[in-house]
Amino acid sequence: MGTVEDLRRITMTPAARRILAAAARLFYERGIHAVGVDLIAAEAGVTKKTLYDRFGSKEQLVVEYLADRDERWRALLAGYLDAADPEPPARVLAVFDASLAWSREHSPKGCSMVNAHAEISDASHPAYPVITGQKEWMLALFTRLARDIAPDDADRLGRTLMLLHEGALVAHGLDVFPNPIGEAREQAQALLAATGNTTTER
Question: For residue 117, what is the DSSP state?
Fold first, then answer.
């Protein structure tokens, strides 16, 4: 579910990497629909022909942009989970810690998948499975972590944690109040403590 390995991907040449770097910056800063291939090619220092030779279409470039961010996010998250205390609540909170670190460095304007979904709602778009797959993967992760805390209620707890996490990402992008991811972490910690107490009493 939600694996980037299932997508059609291209082989990255040095020129393709320059194009992808330029596209990623522009797509995130300005929006996918607002950025044309002429601008991307100019920013990357290549011709438009080179861009199409490497990627085939703007749609495939969007796929590569989102899939690359997803791969890097999962790699960062894996490091936080590996370093976390083995106690199940600590592993859940490590997800929020990873999101806080990622958002500070890579996502000042909020989650790239949420932002992309605001522009790409057509399920036939080749990037659509990247967007929905990433969120399905996150829900599966929270549910799997929740299963170690509340085996009989893992689905509900996983969804609740997902809602806290995704709401925090949106609030971070909107910059409505300070540190929404940190606040969501605190709420998740309180929820896990209450859930743990309930489970112990059964």
Answer: H
Predicted model pTM? 0.90
62 burial type by CB count under 10 A (0-12 exposed, 13-18 middle, 19+ buried): buried
Q: How far is CA 146 from CA 25, 154, 193, in A?
A: 35, 5, 12
Name residues whose C-beta falls within 8 Å of residue 106's C-beta, 6 or more positions apart in sequence.
69, 72
Q: What is the DSSP string of 152-175?
A: GGHHHHHHHHHHHHHHHHHHHHHT
Cα distances (angstroms) measured from residue 190 to each of 164, 186, 194? 12, 6, 6
Residue 187 and residue 184: Cα distance in Å, rounded?
A: 5
- Please tell me the distance from the alpha carbon of residue 139 to that of residue 22, in angstroms, as a whole number: 30
pLDDT for res 141:
98
Helices (H), 84-179: 88-106, 112-119, 128-147, 154-174
Over residues 130-157, the pLDDT tens digits come to 999 999 999 999 999 999 999 999 999 9
Query: What's the sign of the alpha-carbon dihedral 98, 6, 2, 33?
Result: positive
The region, left, alpha or beta by phi > 0 then psi within -120 to 50, assigned to residue 13 is beta
